[in-house]
Specification:
This protein is α+β, with helices and mostly antiparallel strands and about 130 residues long. It has five helices and six strands; from the N terminus they run αβββαβααββα. The two termini are about 30 Å apart.
Length: about 130
């Protein structure tokens, strides 16, 4: 990825924070600029892994080879997915629902789990969502 592609990526993903770091294999320290470091440390606001202090570190060499389309996937570790459901024959995005409707879906999903239905697919449950 080029510097211009990285700038566009940051413009399109305002929740992504980054800093230059120097890593020695055991730990990383923040540095002033790319000439002083060998990697970049990333975090994404709103994901429990990062909100609890986690950081994803990617070396400059890897960043150069990494396609822009894959960088966000690497950072969110598969947790940022659009949740949809089918109710009465129509597909809808769960993100547009109010709290009451989401609780109804959770209750319905729990009932199916207890009766041996499909596995835990409750929206917002697990390590990916708050």
């Amino acid at each position: 990825m080029t510097n211009e592609e990285f700038d566009i990526f940051l413009d399109n993903h305002p929740r992504v924070n980054w800093q230059w770091v120097q890593c020695d294999g055991k730990s990383c320290e923040q540095v002033e600029g790319p000439d002083d470091g060998n990697a970049m440390a990333f975090s994404v606001r709103g994901f429990p892994y990062y909100d609890e202090g986690g950081v994803t570190t990617i070396s400059f060499d890897t960043l150069k080879e990494l396609p822009v389309s894959q960088l966000y996937s690497e950072l969110v570790k598969g947790c940022d997915v659009e949740q949809i459901t089918r109710i009465t024959g129509y597909f809808t995005k769960v993100s547009g629902w109010n709290r009451g409707k989401i609780e109804e879906l959770r209750d319905r999903t729990r009932g199916m789990e207890m009766s041996g239905g499909f596995p835990n697919t409750q929206p917002g449950i697990g390590k990916c969502r708050n």
